[in-house]
Design a protein that fits this description.
Blueprint lengths: L1 E3 L5 E4 L25 E3 L10 E4 L4 E2 L1 E6 L2 E5 L5 E3 L34 H5 L17 H4 L1 H7 L5 H5 L5 H18 L7 H13 L2 H15 L1 H4 L10
Antiparallel strand pairs: 1-2, 1-3, 3-5, 4-8, 6-7
Helix pairs in contact: 5-6, 5-7, 6-7
InterPro entries: Protodermal_1 (IPR039923)
C-alpha cells in the first residue's frame, strides 16, 4: 500500500502478505485519517514458491468503509495474479470440440397487437413464429378429446389450418390461427386459454355456436377489418 502527497511523492508505504484465498490487511497506528483517501494498493510481487505471473490489475484506491471512535477501516476492490500455468489441483482443460449448432429460438412475443390470418400461419417463411406447438402436433394435445372425436386423432395443427368448406373445419382453422396469434401477441383479442375454452364450448353446442365462434375468431385473426395488422416478418 502506498500513500502519496499532492506532488505524487510517496509519503508512506507498507506491504503485507495475502492469505491462500487472497485476503490481506494492513494496520497503521498514527496515520491521520484524513490522508488515507490518497492511498492505494497494488500487487507488488510474489513469493519464490509461487508460479504467478505479473499483476492483472492496476492500483486500487482505498475507500472509507467505517469510521468510529478514532478508528477507521478502508477497503479496496480485488486484486489478482494470473498463474503462468494451471496449478496441479486444477482440473485439466478438456479438448475443444466442434461447436454445437446454434439453437434457433422463436422470436419474442409482440408487445403490440398483431393479428395474422390462417393463410399467414401456413406460410413457410413465418415458421419460426410457431412456439409451444409445432405444425405436426396433433390437435388433440391442445384442444382435447372433443377435437379428436370431431376431427380425428391423427389430424395435425398444420392440416387443421388448411380446413375450408364445412363450418366445423372453418372453426378449427380459425381457432388454431387465433391460438398462434395469442402465443405471439400479448395484447391479442383472446388469450390461448380463452380460445381453447370457446372452441370446446362451440363443439359442445349447436351449429349456430360453431358458426358464431368461427366468425368471431376469423374477425380477430383479420384484425377486425384492418384495425390491426400482422407484424410477422420473414424468418432468417
Amino acid at each position: 500500500m502506498e500513500c502519496k502527497d499532492r506532488t505524487g511523492r510517496v509519503t508512506l508505504s507498507k506491504t503485507a502478505r495475502t492469505s491462500m484465498v487472497g485476503i490481506y490487511s494492513i494496520r497503521f497506528q498514527s496515520k491521520p485519517l484524513s490522508d488515507m483517501g490518497t492511498c492505494s494498493v497494488k500487487l507488488a510481487g510474489t513469493s519464490p514458491r509461487s508460479s504467478c505471473a505479473a499483476p492483472g490489475v492496476m492500483n486500487r484506491p482505498l475507500s472509507l468503509s467505517i469510521k468510529l471512535f478514532g478508528m477507521a477501516a478502508y477497503n479496496a476492490d480485488g486484486l489478482f495474479f494470473k498463474p503462468s500455468k494451471p496449478m496441479s489441483f486444477c482440473p485439466k482443460a478438456k479438448k475443444t470440440s466442434a461447436p454445437s449448432p446454434k439453437l434457433s429460438l422463436p422470436p419474442l412475443p409482440f408487445a403490440k397487437l398483431s393479428a395474422c390470418t390462417a393463410q399467414d400461419w401456413m406460410n413457410p417463411k413465418y415458421r419460426c413464429y410457431w412456439r409451444t406447438w409445432s405444425p405436426k402436433t396433433p390437435i388433440g394435445l391442445w384442444y382435447g378429446p372433443a377435437a379428436n372425436k370431431r376431427y380425428g386423432s391423427s389430424m395435425t395443427l398444420e392440416q387443421g389450418l388448411r380446413g375450408s368448406g364445412e363450418i366445423n373445419r372453418v372453426l378449427l382453422r380459425e381457432s388454431i390461427a387465433a391460438t398462434l396469434n395469442a402465443f405471439n401477441s400479448l395484447p391479442f383479442y383472446y388469450n390461448a386459454v380463452q380460445v381453447n375454452y370457446y372452441f370446446n364450448q362451440a363443439l359442445a353446442g349447436s351449429s349456430k355456436d360453431v358458426q358464431k365462434w368461427a366468425l368471431n375468431f376469423k374477425r380477430a385473426n383479420s384484425g377486425y377489418n384492418g384495425k390491426a395488422r400482422c407484424l410477422m416478418t420473414p424468418c432468417k
